């Protein structure tokens, strides 16, 4: 029997006690994400970015071995349909956490190695570039908290009103602190100590400070506990819709659109791979090349949803993302390394028990229930 996925998790217990927003009009759209739509040059223009960004993916990623232990542990618009002006600037930044070698020291070295991150990067690139996105990555080199936040700041500062900036963080997250100070942090690949992790507050503050009014920012977190990253529903976030993808359709009538020029700040939407107490998982996933590779289940599903050219509004996009996610979670347990064919090892009820005992519910957080619109 193929071992089941294990989570991207390494929980630190310090206590003794217990989409995408898009610029668009309320009209029919030919693209699944208006933010993804538009005839633009798909060649990445890196001139406006700092030199530390990787320009190209690594030469070739090895086919995963049979050892599956490196799995990621722990105004109203009636149809919510959007369309983006072709002149909108679209950029995607992919940040890979996780240690890069088996002997890495420091805090990052206490977390499991994630071998699927380069594959997720390549898969996301192939999905977003045809949509007119220039893709920038921070994956193959170790980056610390300061470098990551500085590069995010620069990535956002080049955007003008109406532009779209998508930022993906894929890797480990954990909870630190005690009592009222208990919080979630993201683990950079270069993280010598716990205090060198990236807090949710510092991520959101970087976006607020460096993204201009009218800029649409989509943060995508593929980590354990990622549902806890968006700000809580307090008085400063009144009207925010924070929902599982499965329940998104129930919130459609509450959404309203907003012109970018009427926004007092950036519109920051978050898409998270799991709930606030759930793990995210990396395992073999089907491939169009007939060679399964290690992928984060959620990012694999995201790439598949983005690749569908016939999705025209929010509801079918979110539904496709959820269905793709359900599919890969079930199918990945049966894949034979080196082939998209089943390895014949699916065992009932063992595999069903694993799926039921390892729940994972991706979420979407829309600030103020506002979706951007471009006139």
TrEMBL record:
A single BP term in Gene Ontology: apoptotic process
Compositional bias annotation for Polar residues: 33-43, 53-67
GO molecular function, one term: cysteine-type endopeptidase activity
Region Disordered, residue ranges: 33-67
Record keyword Glycoprotein present: no
Top-rank lineage group of the source organism: Eukaryota
Keyword Hydrolase appears in the UniProt entry: yes
Name of the protein in its database record: Peptidase C14 caspase domain-containing protein
């Amino acid at each position: 029997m193929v071992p089941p996925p294990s989570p991207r998790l390494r929980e630190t217990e310090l206590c003794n006690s217990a989409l995408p927003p898009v610029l668009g009009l309320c009209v029919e759209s030919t693209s699944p994400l208006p933010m993804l739509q538009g005839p633009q040059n798909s060649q990445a223009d890196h001139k406006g970015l700092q030199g530390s960004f990787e320009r190209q993916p690594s030469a070739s990623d090895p086919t995963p071995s049979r050892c599956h232990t490196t799995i990621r542990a722990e105004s109203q618009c009636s149809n919510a349909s959007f369309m983006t002006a072709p002149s909108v600037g679209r950029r995607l930044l992919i940040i890979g956490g996780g240690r890069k070698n088996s002997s890495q020291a420091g805090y990052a070295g206490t977390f499991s190695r994630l071998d699927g991150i380069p594959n997720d990067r390549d898969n996301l690139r192939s999905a977003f570039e045809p949509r007119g996105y220039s893709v920038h990555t921070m994956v193959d080199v170790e980056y610390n908290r300061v470098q990551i936040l500085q590069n995010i700041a620069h990535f956002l500062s080049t955007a003008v009103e109406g532009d779209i900036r998508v930022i993906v963080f894929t890797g480990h997250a954990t909870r630190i602190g005690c009592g009222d100070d208990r919080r979630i942090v993201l683990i950079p690949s270069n993280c010598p100590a716990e205090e060198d992790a990236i807090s949710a507050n510092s991520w959101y503050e970087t976006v607020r400070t460096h993204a201009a009014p009218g800029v649409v920012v989509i943060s995508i977190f593929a980590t354990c506990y990622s549902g806890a990253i968006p700000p809580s529903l307090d008085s400063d976030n009144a009207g925010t819709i924070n929902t599982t993808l499965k329940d998104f359709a129930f919130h459609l009538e509450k959404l309203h659109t907003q012109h970018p020029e009427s926004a007092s700040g950036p519109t920051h939407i978050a898409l998270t791979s799991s709930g606030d107490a759930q793990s995210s998982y990396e395992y073999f996933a089907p491939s169009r090349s007939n060679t399964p590779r290690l992928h984060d289940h959620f990012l694999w599903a995201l790439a598949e949803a983005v690749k569908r050219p016939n999705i025209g509004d929010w509801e079918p996009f979110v539904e496709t993302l959820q269905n793709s996610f359900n599919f890969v979670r079930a199918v990945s347990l049966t894949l034979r390394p080196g082939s998209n064919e089943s390895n014949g090892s699916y065992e009932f009820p063992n595999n069903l028990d694993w799926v039921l005992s390892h729940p994972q519910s991706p979420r979407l957080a829309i600030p103020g229930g506002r979706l951007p619109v471009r006139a």
